[in-house]
Design goal:
The structure is a homodimer of 199-residue chains. Chain A has 199 residues and is α/β, with parallel strands linked by helices. The first copy, chain A, folds into two domains: 118 residues, 3-Layer(aba) Sandwich (Rossmann fold); 69 residues, Orthogonal Bundle (Arc Repressor Mutant, subunit A), CATH 1.10.10. Helix content of chain A is 56%, strand content 11%. The first copy, chain A, contains ten helices and five strands. Chain A has a five-stranded parallel β-sheet, sandwiched between helices. In chain A, strand 4, helix 4 and strand 5 form a beta-alpha-beta unit. The interface between A and B is large, with 35 and 39 residues. Chain A binds a DNA duplex (30 and 30 nucleotides) through helix 7 and helix 9. Chains A, B: One of its GO terms (molecular function) is DNA binding. Chains A, B: Keywords: DNA-binding, Transcription, Transcription regulation. Chains A, B: This is DNA-binding NarL/FixJ family response regulator. Chains A, B: One of its GO terms (biological process) is regulation of DNA-templated transcription.
Chain lengths: 199, 199
DNA sequence: ACGCGTACTGCCCTTTAGTACAACTCCCTT
DNA sequence: AAGGGAGTTGTACTAAAGGGCAGTACGCGT
């Protein structure tokens, strides 16, 4: 399993090589690597994001060039960048000049098919996710079983007619359920309901 | 730094003990541990979530019983559970009977104050974050200026009549813009458009 | 001058959404 | 037995959404 490094910075190359104590296959830019996709079909690729083509890096993370595990490095890391690359499918995001011990840790985690992310960011992400999950369930608790089913279909964007077909009841009954749902949740129509559920 | 394990399953105890090759302090249930909170004031606590009190586990993750690092195990893991516990403050979530190598990896990461999470879940979290943080979708690039304005109003859940008032044009023109928008984005109606934009 | 894209609007039409009012059947609790 | 919630459906209505057809107007490049 080869370990690749994409950077145009000699100092970063030296830093990473010293930390990992392993043979690195170094490429100057992603475009150079893109021409031989078989090199990154597997293994781990460390990418210095500072001077790389964002679109190309995004494709690499998404797996367009194989199933490589991508670790994105930045000398000026931010939460925005972290979300961008981890969301695209990167396996790690951290400061390019992190402590050697941290780099080794990241390397081990990623090699074991895990992903590496800073504690602060993780808390932010969970808070954001939890925010949605929290407002989601209590809202639907006041609905009956059948009404929740209707909401489920509604979230797929189905029409009343389609919901009626899928639930094997009349369209009139679907409307009855909807009227009850709108009343309980305090919304005027299906559009507002969807917005309330996804906010 | 003690390592605790909360489970009522002998096979899980054996599995983890063998993988970590370390002395484990085993408790049958969380309620047994809750009576002596000083035991989990620090260190790492592995908890088998399968047969535990959810409320109690939530409090443990949130730090009600000290600042222990909590790793939640499940023999039937799901993203929903992962979000639930990581969101509550757990340091890791994984299959109870993961490979010994993975378990050791998780142990190392958590001991180093990191968080362990699967790649798929990470992408979901980032997507959810982006949903809130992102203001403009690449989908909207193919729309004209005026059409993007209409979409903006649409995302507020406004009716055509209201949009017409706000943009100071006729309702018919709003419909004309909408027809163009639906065509370009390949959706049949406003509901599907909203779903597409928020996915 | 001509074509083209964008914006805007009218009339008229069909379909969909939503509600008011009125029933009926089950099932569960009192 | 009586009441009530949940689920179901009908008729009839209003309002909203969506689109076809037709026309006007403005700016921009050839």
């Amino acid at each position: 399993m080869p370990t690749l490094l994409i950077t145009s910075s000699p100092s970063l190359q030296q830093h990473l090589q010293a930390a990992l104590d392993r043979e690195l296959e170094v490429y100057d830019s992603l475009s150079a690597l893109a021409e031989q996709p078989q090199r990154c079909a597997q293994g781990v690729v460390w990418v210095d994001a500072d001077n790389q083509d964002e679109a190309l890096l995004g494709r690499l993370c998404r797996g367009d060039f194989g199933h490589a595990r991508v670790i994105v490095l930045s000398s000026t890391p931010s939460d925005r960048q972290a979300v961008q690359w981890l969301g695209a499918g990167a396996a790690g995001f951290l400061n390019a000049f992190s402590q050697p011990e941290t780099l080794r840790q990241v390397s081990a985690v990623v090699a074991a098919d895990g992903i590496w992310v800073g504690v602060g960011l993780m808390q932010q992400l969970c808070a954001r996710f939890g925010q949605v999950a929290r407002t989601d369930s209590p809202l639907l608790e006041q609905l009956t079983e059948r009404e929740r089913e209707v909401v489920g279909h509604l979230r797929e964007g189905k029409s009343n007619k389609q919901i009626a077909r899928d639930m094997d009841i009349s369209e009139r009954t679907v409307k009855a359920h909807l009227t009850a749902i709108f009343g309980k949740l305090g919304v005027p129509d299906r559009v507002q309901l969807l917005l309330k559920l996804s906010s």
